[in-house]
Write a structure and sequence with these properties.
Organism: Handroanthus impetiginosus
CATH architecture: Up-down Bundle
Domain G-protein coupled receptors family 2 profile: 19-275
GO molecular function, one term: G protein-coupled receptor activity
CATH class: Mainly Alpha
Largest sheet: none
Subcellular location: Membrane
Radius of gyration: 22 Å
Number of domains: 1
Order of helices and strands: HHHHHHHHHHHHH
CATH superfamily: Rhodopsin 7-helix transmembrane proteins
CATH topology: Rhopdopsin 7-helix transmembrane proteins
Protein name: G-protein coupled receptors family 2 profile 2 domain-containing protein
Strand content: under 5%
Number of helices: 13
Helix content: over 70%
């Protein structure tokens, strides 16, 4: 992973082994979670709306980011270099796709535009193009000569130039994306809160439905926290490593590697497991023979009935 490659430094072999295990385990969870969302999109035709298509590309980026985070092996020469480039590329693409989702919500809900589907080519150019540029620039100041000393990860940055380039090409755009998402979701939620309060004042009938709707809407406010939680410790660790390059803090490295590797899992739960996905799964489960359905948890057996009144997380799906 983009952050793992910078935490090794002067850690002992035992500490490196622990970090390797944490990275592999957490990345595996993210790989399964994001892969599940990709599979749902490919299998369930009713999910192939524009809003969930953006979630699909987010999950796809997370899936490849997690996959390449697991497989790095310095003994494989140029394959190892390729692993470093692809990891950086897909991790950057992942948080850039979250900004397209936030932008789409803002344009649809706040600005009342209906042309978001026409912007899909621009989204791809923005995400994949920016990811390519950031990945190529990061090769500046990178030293591959020491790669055999680094253990399980490839393409680690050494020297102040390499660390600065790493920060500029990954953490700087990451925190810009976090800031953009935070401001965007704040504006979306504020506008919908105001609209809900007005509707409640005008209609007693709407008042009974407002509370569950607002619960779903306020959930959007947690989306920027996913990126913050995933990369906060990594950012602190990079800053500390730049200031004191010879002193590694092991517990900080553990939090750095573990939280960053779980980003794909967090995204798949927050963005992917919305009511549309759960409803599609429940409808397929309803087709199972009764003797098989009896073995399912009661919550799954009754899910389809419960979701008839549930608000879809990405409300713009109903507008497409």
């Amino acid at each position: 992973m983009a952050t793992v490659q910078a935490v090794l430094g002067n850690l002992s072999a035992n500490e490196r082994g622990i970090l390797t295990a944490i990275n592999t385990s957490a990345s595996s969870f993210s790989l399964v979670g994001s892969g599940f969302i990709v599979l749902c999109y490919l299998l369930f035709k009713e999910l192939r709306k524009f809003s969930f298509k953006l979630v699909f590309f987010l999950a796809l980026s997370d899936m490849f980011c997690s996959f390449f985070s697991i497989i790095g092996d310095p003994s494989k020469g140029y394959f190892c270099y390729a692993q470093g480039y692809t990891t950086h590329f897909f991790c950057v693409a992942s948080f850039l796709w979250t900004t397209t989702i936030a932008f789409t919500l803002h344009r649809t809900v706040v600005r009342h535009k209906t042309d978001v589907e026409d912007l899909e080519p621009m989204f791809h150019l923005y995400v994949w193009g920016t990811s390519v540029v950031m990945t190529v620039i990061r090769s500046i100041g990178n030293d591959h000569g020491h790669i055999s000393r680094l253990g399980a990860w490839c393409w680690a940055q050494t020297g102040r130039t390499g660390k600065v380039v790493h920060f500029i090409t990954f953490y700087a755009p990451l925190w810009v994306a976090i800031l953009f998402n935070g401001i965007t979701y704040f504006q979306v939620i504020r506008m919908l809160n105001n609209a809900t309060r007005m509707a409640v004042g005008m209609s007693d009938r709407y008042q009974s439905d407002a509370r569950p709707d607002m619960k779903a809407l306020n959930r959007w406010g947690y989306y920027p926290l996913i990126l913050i939680g995933s990369w906060f410790f990594g950012t602190i660790n990079r800053i500390h490593d730049f200031i004191e390059p010879g002193h590694k803090i092991f517990w900080l490295s553990v939090l750095d590697v573990g939280m960053a590797a779980l980003m794909g899992l967090f995204n798949s739960i927050a963005y992917g497991l919305n009511s549309s996905v759960r409803r599609a799964i429940s409808e397929r489960l309803d087709l199972l023979p009764e003797n098989l359905r009896r073995w399912l948890p009661k919550s799954l057996r009754t899910r389809s009935q419960q979701q008839d009144s549930e608000l879809v997380s990405l409300k713009i799906e109903d507008q497409q």
